[in-house]
Write a structure and sequence with these properties.
Blueprint (H helix, E strand, L loop, with lengths): L5 H15 L3 H57 L1
Length: about 80
C-alpha cells in the first residue's frame, strides 16, 4: 500500500472541501501553520534554554559561596564587637 496517486488526491481534496467548506479550509491551514511554527519555536527555546541553564548553574553556585562567605565575615565581625 503506497502513497495515493493523482486521482486519489483529487478525491481526498473534494471530500475535505465538502466536509469543511471552501471558506473554512484557509482558516484550518492558517491554524495548522501557526501550530507548527509555535512548536518549532518552543523546540528552539528548549534547546537553548537547557544549554543556558547548565552554563548558569556553576555561576549561581559561585555566587552562593561568595554570599555565604560575606555573611560569615559579617557575623564574625558583629560577634567580636
Amino acid at each position: 500500500m503506497g502513497m495515493p496517486g493523482g486521482w486519489e488526491w483529487i478525491i481526498i481534496l473534494l471530500v475535505i472541501v465538502i466536509l469543511f467548506g471552501g471558506k473554512k479550509i484557509p482558516e484550518l491551514a492558517k491554524g495548522l501553520g501557526k501550530g507548527i511554527k509555535s512548536f518549532k519555536n518552543e523546540m528552539k527555546d528548549d534547546e537553548s534554554g537547557s544549554e543556558t541553564a547548565s552554563s548558569e548553574q556553576p555561576k549561581q553556585v559561585e555566587a552562593d559561596k561568595k554570599a555565604s562567605a560575606a555573611e560569615e565575615t559579617t557575623s564574625s565581625t558583629t560577634k567580636q564587637a
